[in-house]
């Protein structure tokens, strides 16, 4: 235990469940000071002594308070004032030597009591609230684990004595709780919604049902739903009466919001309005998963998909083979766009082959939060009930897009054209990535956007701006920026024209045209006019060539390999990897070529053939931008030097991919030279001899770095261990399963975080 809790004598006033559990928790961690209690019920004191929770106690505060170094007020909220008055009478005038804290569920009323009794909130009084409890009451129910992993909110006043605050923090930390601070008003507002309202509803529901004639039947047959919803109606009535008196205004405000929501739902049920019901239930169901993950500290998509989370490490056996037929998941870029355009279209869009990865799911969830009813995904099928160009609703909080740069940048364009304010935020990696590249041209169009320092997320987008079309020369080859501007252009007056320095993926243009929104192109420039509309239609998402790449490279470097990848998107703006591998000498053939929903697809067969190093043609760089981590592994297995230049964009992807790959290659012992916009890699290709060694590599949370080094193991002399692989789930949730199927030996450690 914590020497940190150095109280010589702790006095708990009110020895019920909360006070008793505090004593029990301190005992369990070996607190060596004295614990005393004061309670009007002498039998509770006796029980506390019998249970070994307290050393002594009594019913008179005047006898217990003197000599205490800390006093915890664990009495009902409405009893607080009289207890404070008694304390004021017995404690020395300055109260400087005794720290006082409380556990009340509302804070403004208790602060008011303190002001009335002491004339002000004494600096040694630190108000607090452990967010833990049980429907049980009394010291007999004391539980030493009650606070473990629960939150305790402290609401110190600005002039609090810092030593008192440290001591109260230490007290709660010793019980295993996480201690937070907020101000009194925020505490009461938050608790009204998260605790007081649900208790009010549970009391009311049980009471209403209990008064109906068939009550016995209702209770006898009441199953899970009733039980889950009403457990808290068994809580202490007096305590809750006090809370509702004390936090009246905040509770009434939250009840008003609830009643408004309930009457909308009532209307939907009455009218049999399936879209409205689905929209509410979908949003709620996903929000519930999201809450769960917040409680468990995981990402909600990971929670939702039951995927690896937390610290995930891949341990990859050296060698193995690369054989088989595979279908990799749906294209990430097209999956994002299918949800975005489907949501804004008029009518219902059915999507097949949707990527159920965390990135595209983040986009899906964000639209749910803006009121769009979306069914699925279920085995790649999603049904989107479009709301039309102006049908989105203001989200109730920031839109969280996880690891996805595409989602954030495309959303920025869409949201700039909405009537409401919005905020876009992401995970730690995304929050470091540059967003000035979209914010700057959007501002030229008239959008009002705030970013954090250096143009980083979060993005705060002010609604209601009147956008005007612009003629914009992209400073970098970026499909995300192009798409962002085209999306904003749909809401702008006049034409929005974007000129690209090199061709980039054109999925946005193709899909807009497919949804009946004309986008034109002449050479390097594409444009559209604002004010159009989208008409829903079916979308068949091809397999992602960027995911297929890991298996193309696996086969390209492994003697004897033969892999066929089915139904892969081979849009001309995405096939840099095919062109580059072919130039390096790979044996690739395309078959079953077809067009699905405006996108060309093919089966790609690749058989091993020795690779040679090349100078990567500059025009292929934007067409293979996501494929370089894997291509660097191909280069490490090619005879001679492979040179890449003009690829500075790689430095601002999910990681600095030039440096992250160079660091990993160095660990494997692959000779290379890094330059600002590229790298030279000196490869080896002697069949039967490993091309490099093994080692432990940090993927820096970048999915493509993790997958590239997994494939590298096929030609390694020793095991490759790759840390921080959980984000593989952003783009390729079943990567390990497919890698294993073709003959790689991957062991996943720490899946369940
Ligand atoms: C994407 C565009 C590319 C790519 C990203 C997806 C898209 O980014 O790297 O994975 O879907 O538009 P940039 O536009 O930043 O090059």
UniProtKB/TrEMBL annotation:
The keyword Amino-acid biosynthesis applies. The active site is at 626 (proton acceptor). One of its GO terms (cellular component) is cytoplasm. It catalyses: prephenate + NAD(+) = 3-(4-hydroxyphenyl)pyruvate + CO2 + NADH; 3-phosphoshikimate + phosphoenolpyruvate = 5-O-(1-carboxyvinyl)-3-phosphoshikimate + phosphate. GO terms for biological process: chorismate biosynthetic process; tyrosine biosynthetic process. Residues 8-299 form the Prephenate/arogenate dehydrogenase domain. Its EC number is 2.5.1.19. Pathway: Amino-acid biosynthesis; L-tyrosine biosynthesis; (4-hydroxyphenyl)pyruvate from prephenate (NAD(+) route): step 1/1; Metabolic intermediate biosynthesis; chorismate biosynthesis; chorismate from D-erythrose 4-phosphate and phosphoenolpyruvate: step 6/7. GO terms for molecular function: 3-phosphoshikimate 1-carboxyvinyltransferase activity; NAD+ binding; prephenate dehydrogenase (NAD+) activity; prephenate dehydrogenase (NADP+) activity. Transmembrane segments: none annotated. Phosphoenolpyruvate binds at residues 332, 405, 433, 480, 657, 704. Keywords: Amino-acid biosynthesis, Aromatic amino acid biosynthesis, Cytoplasm, NAD, Oxidoreductase, Transferase, Tyrosine biosynthesis. 3-phosphoshikimate binds at residues 332-333, 337, 478, 480, 626, 653. It is found in: Cytoplasm. Monomer. Catalyzes the transfer of the enolpyruvyl moiety of phosphoenolpyruvate (PEP) to the 5-hydroxyl of shikimate-3-phosphate (S3P) to produce enolpyruvyl shikimate-3-phosphate and inorganic phosphate. Belongs to the EPSP synthase family. Belongs to the prephenate/arogenate dehydrogenase family. This is 3-phosphoshikimate 1-carboxyvinyltransferase. The lineage of its organism: Bacteria, Pseudomonadati, Pseudomonadota, Gammaproteobacteria, Oceanospirillales.
């Amino acid at each position: 235990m914590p020497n940190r809790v150095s109280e010589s004598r702790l006095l708990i006033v009110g020895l019920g469940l909360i006070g008793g559990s505090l004593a029990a928790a301190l005992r369990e961690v070996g607190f060596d000071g004295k614990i005393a209690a004061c309670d009007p019920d002498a039998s509770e004191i006796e029980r506390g002594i019998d249970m070994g929770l307290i050393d002594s106690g009594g019913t008179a505060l005047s006898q217990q308070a003197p000599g205490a170094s800390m006093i915890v007020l664990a009495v009902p909220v409405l009893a607080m004032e009289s207890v404070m008055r008694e304390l004021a009478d017995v404690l020395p005038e300055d109260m400087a030597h005794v720290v006082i804290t409380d556990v009340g569920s509302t804070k403004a009323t208790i602060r008011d009591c303190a002001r009335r009794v002491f004339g002000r909130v004494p600096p040694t009084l630190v108000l607090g609230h452990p967010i833990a409890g049980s429907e049980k009451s009394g010291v007999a129910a004391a539980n030493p684990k009650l606070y473990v992993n629960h939150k305790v909110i402290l609401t110190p006043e600005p002039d609090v004595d810092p030593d008192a605050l440290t001591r109260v923090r230490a007290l709660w930390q010793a019980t295993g709780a996480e201690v937070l601070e907020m101000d009194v008003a925020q505490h009461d507002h938050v608790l009204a919604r998260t605790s007081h309202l649900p208790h009010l509803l549970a009391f009311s529901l049980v009471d209403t049902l209990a008064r109906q004639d068939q009550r016995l039947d209702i209770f006898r047959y009441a199953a899970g739903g009733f039980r889950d919803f009403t457990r808290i109606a068994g809580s202490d009535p007096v305590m809750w009466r006090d809370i509702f008196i004390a936090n009246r205004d905040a509770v009434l405000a939250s009840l008003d919001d609830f009643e408004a929501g309930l009457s909308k739902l009532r209307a939907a049920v009455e009218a049999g309005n399936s879209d409205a019901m689905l929209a509410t239930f979908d949003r709620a169901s996903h929000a519930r998963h999201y809450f769960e993950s917040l409680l468990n500290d995981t990402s909600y998509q990971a929670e939702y998909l039951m995927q690896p989370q937390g610290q995930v490490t891949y341990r990859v056996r050296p060698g193995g083979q690369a054989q088989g037929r595979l279908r990799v998941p749906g294209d990430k870029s097209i999956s994002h766009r299918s949800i975005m355009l489907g949501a804004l279209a008029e009518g219902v869009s059915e999507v097949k082959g949707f990527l159920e990865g965390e990135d595209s799911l983040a986009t899906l969830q964000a639209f749910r939060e803006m009121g769009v009813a979306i069914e699925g995904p279920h085995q790649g099928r999603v049904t989107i009930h479009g709301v039309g160009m102006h049908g989105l609703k203001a989200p109730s909080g920031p839109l969280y897009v996880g690891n996805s740069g595409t989602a954030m940048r495309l959303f920025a364009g869409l949201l700039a054209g909405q009537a409401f304010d919005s905020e876009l935020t992401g995970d730690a990696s995304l929050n470091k990535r540059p967003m000035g590249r979209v914010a700057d041209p959007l501002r030229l169009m008239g959008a009002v956007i705030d970013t954090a320092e250096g143009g980083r997320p979060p993005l705060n987008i002010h609604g209601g701006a009147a956008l005007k079309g612009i003629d914009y020369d992209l400073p970098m080859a970026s499909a995300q920026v192009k798409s962002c501007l085209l999306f904003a252009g749909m809401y702008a007056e006049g034409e929005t024209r974007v000129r690209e320095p090199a061709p980039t993926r054109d999925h946005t243009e193709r899909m807009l045209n497919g949804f009946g929104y004309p986008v034109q192109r002449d050479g390097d420039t594409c444009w559209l006019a604002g004010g159009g509309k989208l008409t829903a239609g079916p979308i068949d998402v091809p397999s992602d060539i960027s995911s297929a790449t890991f298996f193309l490279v696996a086969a390209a470097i492994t003697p004897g390999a033969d892999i066929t990848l089915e139904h892969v998107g081979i849009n001309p703006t995405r096939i840099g990897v095919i062109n580059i591998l072919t130039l390096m000498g790979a044996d690739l053939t395309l078959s079953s070529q077809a067009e699905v929903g405006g996108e060309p697809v093919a089966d790609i067969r690749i058989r091993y053939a020795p690779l040679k190093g090349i100078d990567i043609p500059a025009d292929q760089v934007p067409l293979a931008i996501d494929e370089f981590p894997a291509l660097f592994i191909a280069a490490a297995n090619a005879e001679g030097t492979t040179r890449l230049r003009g690829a500075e964009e790689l430095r601002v992807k999910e990681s600095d991919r030039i440096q992250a790959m160079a660091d990993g290659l160095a660990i494997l012992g692959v000779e290379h030279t890094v330059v600002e916009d590229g790298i030279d890699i000196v490869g080896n290709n002697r069949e039967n001899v490993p091309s490099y060694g093994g080692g432990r590599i940090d993927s820096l949370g970048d999915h493509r770095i993790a997958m590239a080094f997994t494939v590298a193991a096929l030609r390694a002399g020793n095991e490759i261990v790759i840390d921080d692989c959980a984000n593989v789930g952003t783009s390729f949730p079943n990567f390990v399963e497919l890698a294993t199927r073709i003959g790689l030996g991957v062991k996943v450690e720490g899946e369940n975080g």
